[in-house]
Model the fold of this input.
Amino acid sequence: MESSTDLKTRDIRIHGLEGLPLVQPGDDLAGMLVRAIQNTGLAAGTGDVLLVTQKIVSKAEGRLVRLSEVTPSERAVELAQRVGKDPRKVEVILRESRRVLKAERPASTGIGVLICETRHGLVCANAGVDESNLSDPDTVLCLPADPDASAERIRSAVRAALGVDLAVIITDSFGRPWRMGLVNVAIGIAGGPALVDLRGSADYSGHPLSVTRIAVADELAAIAGLVMGKLELIPAALVRGWRFDGAPGRAADLIRPAAEDLFR
Done:
C-alpha cells in the first residue's frame, strides 16, 4: 500500500538501542526490545518507528540451519564449484530461492556470489543466507519466513507493553547495482506505508509529477543503519520525528513488478 503523505518532516532523531543481549532461538525478542527502549530513558510515542535488523529476528525465530545436516543436490554441487562456495551452503541458498539470477566469481575479488530471487520476491546476494556473527561455524542463518508478519508481531507486543502505536521495519543490508557498498533496506513492514506516492502533485516549478514514488521505508532503514552499524552490536534503533500517514503497506510494495523491471 502506498501513502500520499506530505514529506514535510524536518527534524528526525535516531536512537540506537544499546544493551540488547545476544539473541537465541526462542527468545522473546519483542520483550527484549521493549526493555531496550525503556533503558534509553526515552518515552516512546505513537508514530515513532522501531527498526530491527533481520539477523536478530531470524535468530529469535530459529531460522538457523546446521550445514552438517544438509545434503547438497547435484545443482548445488555444480553451482558451488562455479562460485567457490560450500555446496551445503549453496543447497540452503537454493531452498530459500525462487530462482538463481546470476552465479559469478569475479576475478577482481575472487569471491563468488549467487544473485537470487528469494521466496519473498527479494533480489539479493545468496538469498540472504549468511554466516556472519554466528558463533557456530557449522551454522548459517536464513531470512525470516515472513518478515511482514515478524514486524507485526513485534509491533503488537510493543503496543501491548508500552501502550504506543509504533511502526516497525525489519531491515537487512543489500548491495546495489552500479554502486559500491551496502545499505540497509526494508524487508518487513508493519504500521506504516512502504512508499509515498507523489504522482499527481506538482514540483516547485508547477510541473506535474508523473512517476515519483518515495521509498520511505527504505530511507528510514538506511538512516537507522548509521547508528546500528555492522560492528557495534546495536541491532535496533528508534526513529523519532517521522510521521506515517495513510494505510499500512507491505515490503512487497517495494519490489518492482516483473513487467516494469528492465534489468532482470
